[in-house]
Amino acid sequence: MNCDLIVFGALFLLLIGMGGLLLTGRGAWLIAGYNTMPKKERERYDKRALCCFMGKLMFFCAACLLLMGADEVWPGRGLWLAGTIWLVIGAVGAVIYANTGGRFLKKNGPKEP
């Protein structure tokens, strides 16, 4: 068996596991920016919605990785390039989506003084 396929498979399973943990709302400790915030600032955010979004993003990244790994099985079809392009588009889109519009702020949360 090709060593690259083992690496792709292990990373795919890791991303699927992290996505599942985040979708349940219990993986907030995996989100670096959220995890390093002071407790008072963390209270302003809807942890469940943020975890759900990040879980879906992990599943998207896993799908892109699966597409990139498929290039090892069927070489020469541009699957590596397609997976890489979708991964970059998804990452940039996720950063823009998460950082605009205050989507993950609690609606009736603690107010600033």
Determine the mean pLDDT: 86
Number of helices: 5
Can you tell me the number of structural domains? Answer: 1
Proportion of residues in helical segments: 55-70%
Cα-based radius of gyration, to the nearest Å: 17 Å
- The counted number of beta strands is 0
Strand percent estimate = under 5%
> pLDDT under 50 segments (min length 5)?
none
**N-to-C SSE string, H for helix and E for strand:** HHHHH
Q: What structural class do the secondary elements suggest?
A: mainly alpha
Q: Given the C-alpha coordinates, what overall shape results?
A: elongated
Q: How would you characterize this protein structure?
A:
The N and C termini lie far apart (60 Å). It is built from five helices and no strands. With 113 residues, it is mainly alpha-helical.
Blueprint of the fold:
Elements: H1 3-23, H2 32-35, H3 39-42, H4 47-73, H5 79-99
